[in-house]
Amino acid sequence: METATKQITSSSGVGNIRVLGRSLALGLSLLVPGMGVAHAEGPGRGATAQFEKNYLVFIINHHYSALRMTELAAGTDLTRDAQVVAPQEGTSPTPGFNATPPKASDDEIKSMARMGNREQREEIGRAQRFLREWYGIQYQPQLTADGRRMIAMLEATPAGAQFNQVFLRSFSNHHLGALAPSLHCTVKSDLNHDGLRRYCENIVVVQKNGINDMREMLCKRYSDCGFVPMTGDKRKDNEF
């Protein structure tokens, strides 16, 4: 009798475990799709949508002008050099511009220009993908009036030491122009768009560090230790 009771109790326990297991499985099957929907990426909601579209167009155009600015510093090459690090290697030319010899005479400036060129090309592509996937917008980069002005100034500057200094100042100013919009992006983009938020955070860090690298070079090599980058917008530049 005692043995039979134990068997019944054991069977009952196994049955309860099976029922509990089925309940958990059902609960998880309902929960997981719900979680997927909560984190699905689509257009921004409310005012975030217009902000994101405006920001992505802005950063594409901003970076596009940087391509030509860095080409003028590092020069352009249609083919890549065999070695991994080639101090004299140029960048890939921007469509619509002629081949350009390097105007910078400092290998470190040329290296920085190549690195910025490559990184900002990829960032343009990623911003285009966000616009396309979330908003169905096929956007091609355009040069803004400010971008054309900076490019024209570098084109008119003689190659060598003078160009080195003008480039460091103008590219610092150019970097500064992306900081505030990208910082705004970290708190104004849609809460579900983690990828865009990380994209903007990375731009803030990279542009800020790039500015200070260039300020340091101006100080150490050209004794210009008091340089302060400016956006060209008097209201913004005089806020503090």
Automatic annotation (TrEMBL):
Residues 102-218 form the DUF305 domain. Residues 86-106 are annotated as: Disordered. InterPro entries: DUF305_CopM-like, Ferritin-like. Pfam families: DUF305. It comes from the Bacteria. This is DUF305 domain-containing protein.
